[in-house]
Amino acid sequence: MPAAPTARKTRVAVLISGSGTNMVSLIAEGRSPDSPYEVVLVVSNIAMAAGLEKARAAGVETAVIEHRPFGKDREAHERALDALLVEHEVEVIALAGYMRLLTPWLVREWEGRMLNIHPSLLPLYPGLNTHARALEAGDAEAGCTVHIVTEGVDEGPVLGQARVPILPGDTPDVLAERVKAAEHILYPRTLSDFVGRLHS
């Protein structure tokens, strides 16, 4: 008997600014035969971002659209980014350490199709310095959150969370590594679930 046709995978772009560790996990999950998505493009706003080489080593197409030439015109930068995503027939965006505040224009263009991972248990500690803030508050646990991107910073609907204990003697750097390990499990799983629901 002929093999059953393979279901088409949703085309995902990952946006990075740095090392791309979450990106690596997303690419690996997308390569699984039963994954509903595949990472078809990795884009950075920084030409020297270490994650770009990791993506190339994994055989994923990469692109750089630096923000500096656009000066303060963030929307112009995003329009160039959007044109690239459309050209590659991207259907879902996964932000993975993309260190840019997005304009309402881009958020609206990709409304309901752009995810982000944040290193805290939202709504606790949106923004930066999440681990130091959790330690200063005396919290018993920290974690990470995958959410839909909306116009408010780290305010979108939560899709998934992972919790990790805060241990005696933790520093922000030590806690960050524990949370990062949880991110690498949570983000691919949550993206798969999200994409699966899009087509159900």
Automatic annotation (TrEMBL):
InterPro entries: Formyl_transf_N, Formyl_transf_N_sf, GART. Residues 11-191 form the Formyl transferase N-terminal domain. It catalyses: N(1)-(5-phospho-beta-D-ribosyl)glycinamide + (6R)-10-formyltetrahydrofolate = N(2)-formyl-N(1)-(5-phospho-beta-D-ribosyl)glycinamide + (6S)-5,6,7,8-tetrahydrofolate + H(+). This is Phosphoribosylglycinamide formyltransferase. Keywords: Purine biosynthesis, Transferase. Belongs to the GART family. GO terms for molecular function: phosphoribosylglycinamide formyltransferase activity. Its EC number is 2.1.2.2. The keyword Transferase applies. N(1)-(5-phospho-beta-D-ribosyl)glycinamide binds at residues 20-22. (6R)-10-formyltetrahydrofolate binds at residues 74, 99-102, 116. HAMAP family: PurN. CDD domains: FMT_core_GART. Pathway: Purine metabolism; IMP biosynthesis via de novo pathway; N(2)-formyl-N(1)-(5-phospho-D-ribosyl)glycinamide from N(1)-(5-phospho-D-ribosyl)glycinamide (10-formyl THF route): step 1/1. The active site is at residue 118. The lineage of its organism: Bacteria, Pseudomonadati, Pseudomonadota, Alphaproteobacteria, Caulobacterales. The keyword Transferase applies. Pfam families: Formyl_trans_N. It is an enzyme of class 2 (transferase).
